[in-house]
Specification:
By secondary structure, this protein is mainly α. It has one domain (about 50-425). The protein has helices at about 1-15, 20-35, 45-50, 60-70, 75-85, 90-105, 110-130, 135-145, 145-150, 155-165, 165-175, 175-195, 205-220, 220-230, 235-255, 260-295, 295-310, 310-325, 330-350, 355-370, 375-385, 390-410, 415-425. α6 (about 90-105) packs antiparallel against α7. The radius of gyration is 22 Å and the shape is globular. It starts with a helix and ends with a helix.
């Protein structure tokens, strides 16, 4: 009963417009004061314990890395390389947008950051070339889904830390789903642009195309540095973010040039603001999860679900539907922090590979970032493209369909998610 009250109050406060962090903080505090036989004096210890995890340090570092990519002009060079590769195909700038997101995904790991960085260049460019603003916003938002799927990924860090799952395994598990999604977005974009008779860019001379790709090459090898360093034990996921920052600064000053100290300062300031909000949510989510643990919610939910069905597929579909609905009204970070510890033991009990579980969880919550009413990525691209939410929502639906197809494939064919982690790191016992 207390668990129902906890979640009921949470969604009620969200419904009346209270910010998510306060909606998450008030219900457990009320239960602690009026219902549970637990001393509130334990709260400081719980909050410190929630934030005192080495993996969390990677979050501000990857946020900072994403800001650096934009501030130092690396994003522009990735766009130039993508235009050289696919700029001559029908729907050229649409494909360039997806390809740049794919390249950026291997460096920043932030969905909102990628949407803002790529959208600030591509959406005005697509509008100038005759693409509808709604389509430009939709393909930019859909492409941003690749950011948290292709390693590195901030979402994977949060899921892995919350559920005690290997972060590197989750990173590797997102590679093939991300590549499949990128391919589906390009195919769908091709047919939409061909039907709409959208413009085609002229094919650049071979020498010019080679020059653009060569310029972008130092940035493109970043994900291989991350994965290679972690696989060989040179550094952890947290240290990989620091290595990425040093590498980005090195190539921006030593290879590309044109970067100013003020650019680094502004990127740092933006990362500090973003990180403060994230860690506020982490602290409050720690209290929420602690109360759930005190109520033995995970054990009771596990017993209830197993009594209904022991089928892993049924569980993953039920989880997906739940998360797709919740993702429309709750941001991704609170869902990871509260629900991953709740559902991980159940998935493990049903014999589901935790990498498959993490990737399904990730895809479902990311889709919510593209939909009203709380999709942050949606608001970012709508603001850049000067598009109404209603018009954007119509344009994004076909692309959401592609992400649902990938979700279904991962549920029915778990090897899409688990084959690469098992190949690189071995099969878990």
């Amino acid at each position: 009963m207390e668990t129902i009250i906890l979640f009921g109050l949470f969604f009620l406060l969200m419904a009346i417009g209270l910010p998510v962090v306060f909606s998450m903080a008030i219900p457990p505090l009320l239960l602690l004061v009026f219902k549970l036989d637990v001393s509130p004096s334990l709260l400081p210890t719980v909050i410190i314990g929630a934030m005192d995890k080495w993996s969390w340090i990677a979050i501000p570092l990857f946020v900072y890395l994403g800001n650096l990519l934009d501030a130092t002009g690396i994003t522009k060079r990735l766009i130039g390389a993508a235009q050289a590769l696919v700029g001559h195909i029908p729907g050229a700038l649409s494909h360039v947008t997806v390809l740049v997101h794919l390249m950026m995904a291997g460096m920043s790991g932030s969905m909102v950051g990628d949407a803002a960085a790529v959208g600030s260049f591509m959406i005005p460019g697509m509008k100038k070339d005759g693409y509808p603003a709604t389509y430009a916003a939709a393909i930019t938002a859909a492409g941003a889904l690749l950011g948290p799927l292709i390693p590195p990924s901030i979402a994977a860090i949060v899921i892995g830390t919350s559920g005690d799952i290997s972060i590197l395994r989750i990173w590797l598990g997102g590679v093939f789903p991300g590549l499949i999604l990128a391919l589906l977005l390009i195919i769908l974009g091709y047919f939409i642009c061909r039907r709409g008779n959208y413009p085609i860019s002229p094919r650049p001379p071979l020498r010019e195309a080679a020059r653009r790709i060569t310029i972008a090459l130092p940035a493109l090898i970043t994900p291989f540095i991350f994965i290679g360093g972690m696989r060989t034990g040179l550094f952890t996921a947290t240290e990989a973010a620091a290595v990425g920052i040093c590498y980005a600064v090195l190539i921006s000053f030593g290879i590309y040039g044109g970067t100013k100290i003020t650019d680094i300062f502004n990127a740092s300031l933006s990362a500090i603001r973003s990180t403060a909000g994230i860690f506020f949510i982490i602290a409050i989510a720690g209290v929420f999860s602690w109360v759930l643990t005190t109520l033995q919610a995970s054990q009771r939910l596990s017993e209830f679900i197993v009594s209904l069905s022991t089928s892993p597929t049924v569980f993953l579909y039920a989880l997906s539907i739940t998360l797709l609905i919740l993702g429309c009204v709750v941001e991704g970070a609170p869902l990871y922090l509260v629900l991953v510890p709740l559902f991980t033991p159940i998935a493990s009990k049903l014999g589901i590979d935790l990498v498959q579980f993490a990737v399904v969880f990730e895809i479902c919550t990311l889709v919510g970032q593209l939909t009203p009413p709380v999709g942050i990525t949606m608001y970012v691209v709508c603001q850049i493209g000067d598009v109404t939410v209603a018009d954007y929502t119509k344009a994004i639906l076909p692309f959401l369909g592609m992400s649902i197809i990938v979700l279904i494939l991962v549920i029915h064919f778990p090897q899409i998610a688990v084959w690469l982690p098992n190949l690189v790191m071995g099969v878990t016992k």
